[in-house]
Amino acid sequence: RQMETRIRRLTLCVVLVASSVITGAAVGGDWPQWRGPSRDGVSLETGFLQQWPAGGPPLAWTISGLGKGYGTVAVQGDRLYVQGTQGDSSAVFCLRRSDGGRIWARALGRTLDQERGGGPRGTPTIDSDVLFALSETGDLACLRLSDGTVVWSRNILADFGGGNPKWLISESPLVDGPNVIVTPGGRNAGLVALDKKTGKTVWTTRELSDPAAYSSGIVADVHGVRTIMTLTSQAAVGVRATDGKLMWRYTKVANDTANVTTPVFFNNRVFVTSAYNTGAALLQLRAENGEVRADEVYFTRDMMNHHGGVVLVNGHLYGFSNAILTCLDAQTGTVQWRDRSVGKGSLTYADRRLYVLGEGNTVGLVDASPAAYVERGRFQIADQGWPSWAHPVVAGGRLYLRNQGVLASHDIAAK
Fold it and tell me: Tell me: the pLDDT tens digits for 316-336?
């Protein structure tokens, strides 16, 4: 009987833990890379304000001095990491999470201006006690979290013969096991894997020479085959993570101007989308003889996502189709609702709500429900002279909003 009681208690504990993970009740306060812990724009934290007061949630702190750039924050422990500029250099800043105070700054290389704004576009990727950051000119560095010491660095454009896209490199590095993956867009080096401890080349995609676009990749196991997926300037692609072999290439979703959005993977399917009068597709992925093939499930012009990303919540996809916030049934692509909301922008999901940021400096809180568009509050942030293109981040009960040199932390925890 004692043994049976112990088994029942152990079973109950397992069920409770599993239930908390499934329902999102488990609270995690870190956001260690682009689009969060799972690289999908989804936070599992709960306990947030479900309606904002007039003027938005309380401002905890705000800082300036990050220079130029469109990248957002990575969060781990008591620190924040964000890219910006310092004089003529593209740099990484380490800040205190409590008040935004600077701990250290590290230059990666020269910065670059552009007609749509200068500075870096990417978000650092934290891995254990280091981070990886890629600048707008192709300088990739591994830095120690403690003090910003450079472990190794190299320039991916110079080393792999790539060209800088018109609006500059915008990629956030992807860490997969022992490797860090980036997209130089060079000949026989559309994507490359580098040893994350040394920076040495592990493989290049010898069958893929597409120039780079502005997308950041993801990685997933597809029927046992580890697969890296991203958008190049010419196609959505799937590359085998072990050796860089190109396994599938889907051109219908790519446009000739700017392919930006990070793919969304679920149930051995991947959703890919771009703007400029193109659209979106859901691809079914299947493995054969150690390779993955992609078959189109549907193509739709009802999701032309520019830069702001797409999130999957309870079987529905949410994202801006050009300037219209749109909800799609993920399995069919059927539109559930559309709304002009805050205008063309970006979004993040947490605790039943979408946190949306329009490029015109309006922040909104919206129900993540296919039933209807319901807004739960909005407020304005100060115009810094360029579009607000840095995605919002939710971590540890705070909403982080970066707009060029300014970073603000808002308290969104329910009291």
Answer: 999 999 999 999 999 999 999
